[in-house]
């Protein structure tokens, strides 16, 4: 959540910053709840002070041999009244927390203003899209031609937005994940983590998927339910939930390869063909947990790590800064990497690297001990795809296709493919 002090100390300015994110705070509703909270807190503190004073008076009167019956009755009445005020205060605080949990993060001052993806800003490009001297096929036709990609059977097994891969294509998919993990662990210094694929509601709340994106989650029928993870960011970031991390333990750089599960509730009719947007996909996820002063340098570092994956695979891409209207709910600043997809003659997102600052840490109660003050303060957390495995596979199939329908395997993946250099019938 955003820092509640921003609303208390400069409400007007904070409201304006939220409006550029497309969020319009009901100021009257917020102020009414905050006024009620202040009043109840003041009343509860006054009652507590008076109860403490009269409790001390009991000891004094007893030592003098006096009758304390009246004072004890008064203390009991004060205790009952205090419990009522504290209960009302907890209720108001819970409503305020619920409101805060629905508010998006405030954009960093360097984020471009805009309402949608057309106003994102390109920063740089790497590589030159290949010019083909034959008719380009998309990954669906290529997979069908190789006999290694089966959407019909997947539909019978599970429904739309699923695929069955087999043979060398399934091995290439696995090789991609292995390559990314090894690169991030061996070259970039990440710690590999194996995480649960089912999490509870509090874990999703901590990273911001709940309550706003509940319709996108796959949940079990348990009471309370478990949720299939939409990204490894969720369990990885929550590894520090409720903890105070010492400064000498930072930065934490974590990586995991997991399946991810999303209902894609808001994407009806979009990318229904192929592997671009599926209910189940795999991703290698990077998470940084850092001191606040280091988080924007860490964002650049993480983005560079994702870029290295694409460069080593030889895939043309571009880096863009998302505008205020296109960023995710929790992000303060986001760089997207978009890989070139020949059949679509356009760049498509393959990695999204975000600094969420203290937004998730406040929700998770994740803190570090600032050595300058000796006090616990919210950590900064970052997350990024390093990268989406399925979309990387799509990009390789299409960019490395040959006129005969075969696919050349990038050199860095061949050691993971027992030396196989080409996928063919």
Report a brief summary of the structure.
With 425 residues, this protein is of the alpha+beta class.
Structure description:
- With 425 residues, this protein is of the alpha+beta class.
- It folds into two domains: 26-101, Serine-tRNA synthetase, tRNA binding domain (Helix Hairpins), CATH 1.10.287; 117-423, BirA Bifunctional Protein, domain 2 (2-Layer Sandwich), CATH 3.30.930.10.
- The protein has helices at 4-9, 11-19, 27-63, 69-101, 139-146, 151-157, 167-187, 201-207, 233-237, 295-313, 359-364, 389-399; strands at 121-126, 149-150, 164-165, 191-192, 198-199, 227-228, 244-246, 252-261, 280-290, 317-321, 333-341, 346-355, 367-369, 376-378, 380-388, 407-408, 422-423.
- An eight-stranded mixed beta sheet has the order 1-10-11-12-15-9-8-4. A three-stranded mixed beta sheet has the order 7-13-14, with no helix packed on it.
- Helix 3 runs antiparallel to helix 4 and helix 7 (167-187) packs across helix 12 (389-399).
Rounded mean pLDDT is 96
State the CATH class of the largest domain. Answer: Alpha Beta
Uncertain parts: none
Tally of distinct domains = 2
Helix/strand-derived category reads alpha+beta
Number of contiguous helices: 12
Number of DSSP-assigned strands: 17
- Coarse morphology: elongated
Query: CATH H-level name of the largest domain... which superfamily?
Result: Bira Bifunctional Protein, Domain 2
What value does the Rg take, in angstroms?
A: 27 Å
Order of helix and strand elements from N to C terminus? HHHHEHEHEHEEHEHEEEHEEEHEEEHEE
How would you characterize the largest beta sheet? 8 strands, mixed
Helix content estimate = 25-40%
For the terminal residues, how far apart are their CA atoms?
A: 52 Å
CATH architecture of the largest domain: 2-Layer Sandwich
């Amino acid at each position: 959540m955003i820092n509640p002090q921003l609303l208390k100390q400069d409400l007007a300015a904070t409201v304006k910053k939220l409006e550029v994110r497309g969020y319009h705070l009901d100021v009257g509703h917020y102020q009414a709840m905050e006024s009620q909270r202040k009043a109840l807190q003041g009343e509860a503190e006054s009652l507590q002070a008076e109860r403490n004073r009269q409790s001390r008076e009991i000891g004094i009167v007893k030592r003098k041999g006096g009758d304390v019956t009246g004072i004890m009755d008064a203390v009991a009445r004060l205790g009952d009244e205090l419990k009522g005020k504290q209960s009302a205060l907890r209720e108001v605080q819970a409503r305020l927390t619920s409101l805060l949990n629905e508010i998006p993060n405030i954009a960093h001052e360097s984020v471009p203003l805009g309402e949608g993806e057309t106003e994102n800003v390109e920063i740089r490009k790497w590589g030159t899209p290949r010019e083909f001297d034959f008719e380009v096929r998309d990954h669906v036709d290529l997979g069908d031609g190789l006999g290694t990609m089966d959407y019909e059977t997947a539909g019978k097994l599970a429904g739309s937005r699923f695929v069955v891969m087999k043979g060398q294509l399934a091995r290439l998919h696995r090789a991609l994940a292995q390559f990314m993990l090894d690169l991030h662990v061996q070259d970039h210094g990440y710690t590999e983590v194996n995480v649960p694929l089912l999490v509870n509601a509090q874990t999703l709340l901590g990273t911001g998927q709940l309550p706003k994106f509940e319709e996108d989650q796959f949940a079990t029928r348990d009471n309370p339910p478990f949720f299939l993870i939409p990204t490894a960011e969720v369990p990885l970031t929550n590894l520090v939930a409720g903890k105070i991390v010492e400064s000498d333990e930072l930065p934490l750089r974590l990586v995991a390869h997991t399946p991810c599960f999303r209902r894609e509730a808001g994407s009806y009719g979009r990318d229904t063909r192929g592997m671009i947007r599926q209910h189940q996909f795999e991703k290698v996820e990077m998470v940084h947990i850092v001191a606040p002063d280091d988080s924007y340098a860490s964002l650049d570092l993480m983005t560079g790590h994702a870029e290295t994956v694409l460069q080593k695979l030889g895939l043309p891409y571009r880096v863009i800064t998302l505008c205020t209207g296109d960023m995710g709910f929790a992000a303060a600043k986001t760089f997207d990497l978009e890989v070139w997809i020949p059949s679509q003659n356009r760049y498509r997102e393959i990695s999204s690297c975000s600094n969420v600052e203290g937004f998730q840490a406040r929700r998770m109660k994740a803190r570090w001990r600032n050595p300058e003050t000796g006090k616990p303060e919210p950590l900064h957390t970052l997350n990024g795809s390093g990268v989406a495995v399925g979309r990387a596979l799509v990009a390789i199939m299409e960019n490395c296709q040959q006129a005969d329908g075969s696919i050349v395997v990038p050199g860095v993946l061949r050691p993971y493919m027992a030396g196989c250099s080409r996928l063919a019938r």
